[in-house]
């Protein structure tokens, strides 16, 4: 059966999903829910980029036009919103991870690093998600609500879905062959399983002008350019125009 892509513009979470039961849970009983299915990921991404207005206005609404987020439906909606991304040039090749953290809808921190000269895009995405989960644990312990946004369906599925089956089978796949990126997946899944009742985590469309996703993307490529194996905080104050003008993945 061909994969369908479900766009949720207004629901308990917004984004693009590939599971109807998950999508149904996000929109059932939600006042003003807006959603639709698409046959291809490209169609879903284009529709999501054009689509609805979130229940909360974009935090960039009062910024200069050049700094405004193109898609208000992905506006930060928690005390802390964390956007993650991974890049690789080529794939496999030089890889790096990036992260953008918002507090109360305002950009507060940018992070980059975890350079791997022989990495993959999937590994870079998982590394970024693991760092976000580590930060989420700290923020939740402080009493803050946290929402992690990743543009990698692979990384999200590994941590929130597939890992349960692999773990039940002694960290083995149904078919022959090892699980790629197993060590990172195990660390991230352990954290996710510990935090999942308090944590929001969802897919965000990539490269459609969502500020947090675009900034995380720039940080992942900045990590490749800097070839820094640590995970470093990008120095503030930030000039969004300058950061967004950095190389994109």
Automatic annotation (TrEMBL):
All copies of domain RNase H type-1, residue ranges: 76-225
Pfam families linked to this entry: Cauli_VI, RNase_H
Gene3D superfamilies according to UniProt: Ribonuclease H-like superfamily/Ribonuclease H, Ribonuclease H1, N-terminal domain
Keywords: Endonuclease, Hydrolase, Magnesium, Metal-binding, Nuclease
Cofactor annotation: Mg(2+)
Biased composition (Polar residues): 57-72
EC number: 3.1.26.4
Entries under PANTHER family matching the protein: RIBONUCLEASE H1
Entry's family note: Belongs to the RNase H family.
Subunit structure comment from the entry: Monomer.
Protein's name in the database: ribonuclease H
Organism listed in the record: Shewanella algidipiscicola
């Amino acid at each position: 059966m061909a994969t369908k892509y479900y766009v949720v513009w207004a629901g308990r979470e917004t984004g693009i999903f590939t599971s109807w039961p998950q999508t149904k849970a996000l929109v059932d009983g939600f006042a003003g829910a807006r959603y639709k299915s698409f046959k291809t990921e490209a169609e879903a991404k284009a529709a999501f980029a054009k689509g609805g207005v979130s229940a909360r206005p974009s935090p960039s609404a009062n910024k200069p036009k050049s700094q405004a987020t193109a898609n208000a439906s992905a506006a930060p909606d928690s005390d802390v919103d964390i956007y993650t991304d991974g890049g690789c040039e080529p794939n496999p090749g030089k890889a790096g991870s990036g992260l953008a953290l918002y507090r109360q809808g305002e950009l507060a921190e940018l992070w980059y690093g975890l350079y791997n000269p022989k990495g993959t895009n999937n590994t870079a995405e998982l590394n970024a998600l693991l760092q976000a989960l580590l930060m989420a644990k700290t923020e939740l312990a402080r009493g803050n609500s946290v929402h992690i946004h990743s543009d990698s369906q692979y990384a999200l599925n590994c941590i929130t879905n597939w890992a349960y089956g692999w773990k039940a089978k002694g960290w083995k796949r149904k078919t022959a062959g090892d699980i790629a990126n197993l060590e990172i997946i195990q660390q991230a899944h352990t954290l996710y399983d510990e935090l999942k009742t308090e944590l929001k985590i969802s897919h965000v469309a990539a490269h459609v002008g969502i500020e947090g996703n675009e900034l995380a993307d720039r940080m992942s490529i900045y990590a490749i350019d800097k070839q820094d194996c640590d995970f470093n905080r990008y120095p503030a104050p930030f000039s969004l125009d300058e950061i967004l003008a950095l190389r994109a993945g």
